[in-house]
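Subgroup meeting minutes
Present: P.N., E.W., G.H.
Scribe: E.W.

1. P.N. recapped why we're keeping a running log of single-chain structure predictions: easier to compare across weeks, and new members can see raw inputs and outputs side by side.
2. G.H. added today's entry (660 aa).
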Amino acid sequence: MPSIRSIVLPTENASFLYRHHLLILNQTRRCSIPTALQSPLFLLPRSPSLQQVKQAHALIVATGLANDATIMGHLLAALALSPSPTSSIDYPFSVFRRIKNANIFATNNMIRCLAKSETPHDSVALYADMCRSSLLPKPNNYTFPFVLQACSKALAIVEGFQIHTHIVRLGYAHDVYVRNALIHFYSACHRTESSRYLFEENSQCRDVVTWNSILAAYARDGQMDLAQKLFVEMPEKDVISWSTMIMGHVQGGHLEKGLDCFREMRERGLRPNEAILVTVLSASAQLGLLEHGCLVHSTIESLNFPMSVSLNTALIDMYAKCGCIERSKEIFNKMAHKDVWSWNVMICGLAAHGLGNEALVLFEWFTTEGFRPVNITFVGVLNACSRAGLVDEGRRYFKSMIEDYGIEPEMEHYGCMVDLLGRAGFITEALELIEKITIQPDPVLWGTLLGACKIHGLVELGETIGKKLIKLDPTHDGNYVLLASIYAKARKWEDVIKVRRMMVDRGANKVAGWSLIEAQGKVHWFIAGDREHERSPEIYQMLEVITKRLAESGYLPDISPILHDIQEEEKENVIKEHSERLAIAFGLLVTEVGGCIRIVKNLRVCGDCHEVSKMISKVFEREIIVRDGSRFHHFREGWMMDQPNTHSQIQSNPIRLSTH
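Output recorded in log:
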């Protein structure tokens, strides 16, 4: 135990505070104020750090109050409330063991400390001792929420069942706090029906926490329709209620519903918590909806919300995935403190935008700052090498990951290497890498190699890999499409027809391509040949304008992606109605002159649409950013801004080497 002289209180003037405490202590000894308020514990904040608790403990010893059972019980309560993780349970146990005749308050707080520790089963063991030992007090209604918290954390369903029977036998089944803890316990153990039974058993024994607990049970179980029904029926909603619904929608893949829920919550004047803000930023990032993400960012700023590392990292991720990599850089550079995930998100963001060299510079800075790479770090690094065509660097980093950092490669790492080698034409090396993998190769690896065969026109090898893939996964449409594309490029139309017939016979229907654009506060979706949009006539008129002006600039369509043996003119008509072209045409209609057009596409951009986007950026003087299923494509003034050979053009605002 440190001496009183070594204590540094977390205040501006520790000595004044200590003298002030002694003055209050002398006064309270003359008055009938509870013993706990006569101790240094009343100086602690609501959620003290572990160091602050230990400092208060030292003052308790120094002032001769260490033998007071009530004060030591409150010390355990402070430990239980501390957000600081305890490296071991030795300290709270040493406090508890020194309490003579520990009362129910001290024992309950010891159970609470153990419940939040890394060994929650110890909490259940102490509860069992309470039930058996005559030296410990018997459980009361405050005991059960703490011990059930431990059961929830440990997923101790058998012990939880037994405690439930004790609750009923001891007459605490209608205590609202105990019932809430039971509902949460069954939910954590994926026993949603048991949670629902408890919720419906007594409609008079409910508070907002009860409703939130059953909402969380349904959300965790993926039953968002039932959760929505209950949410509407709730007599009172708090920020936790809204948080549960927003996170449930987003985690269930209903991203737009989550964003709509957030918008409604804000319209009702509720202040979001950090979990909500991070979740809606993630939803905006996944959808690529910049306007939604900017709305969340402006909400954060208008509320003067504390900018934690998690929130900054979520903003970096959102801007990167919405095509604003420059904003990601700005936020990253301004962060006073960064954790490993902040660096990982920035590295992966730069890689996705084709800024391979910047991503690698950032990785080297990351390691010099003393951070240790993890699996996802090297996914970003290898992806950066692939996007920038840095074959030698990719080989070196892949070797370093294994030998220097002891990270066993996963499918994502192999996928990046196969993509890197395949794009660069090292097909044989990529094939050897796949065949050396000790675990069963993911079909995605073979699919990546098949894509490389298409790029380099390797019909025979592509045919072999394509048939292997179809055998591995006969229902995946992408394998058929890639093989058919290889045949079409070689003008082997009979083989194209055979593959398409096989695709239909095996029920592997091609996933429809779609593109979306966010404009005028709405999300607009397009599919190829779409005429359902309310402004469809204007869109097609704009397409004609685009076609005419591109033709005047020397554009000749690349019709190789069309997998039908039809007339050339028909192919040109088919390809010009691809979903991303409709979205770009709409963007030219509704965005301000000279403004950036941002498109999100679920499939890879075909070669002709890629070339068209590049030419539109020059002819119409627009920046166009397309996020497809693989990467970002930046087009400006007729250039593909993230190609390796134009790297010198994208260094205007690199990551700044700061001293943070």
